[in-house]
Amino acid sequence: MALKAAGRTSLVDSVVEQLRAQLTDGEWAVGDRIPTEHELAQQLGVGRNTVREAVRVLVHAGLLESRQGNGTFVRSTTDPAAVLRGVRHAGAADVLELRVALEAEAARLAAVRRDTHDLLRLRAALTTLREEGDRDADADLAFHLAVVGATHNATFVEVYRFFSTQVHEVLVEALGDREMPPVDIDAHEALVEAVEAGDPEAAERQARELLRVPMETVATLAEGTGRNR
Question: What pTM value is reported for the model?
Answer without folding.
Answer: 0.63
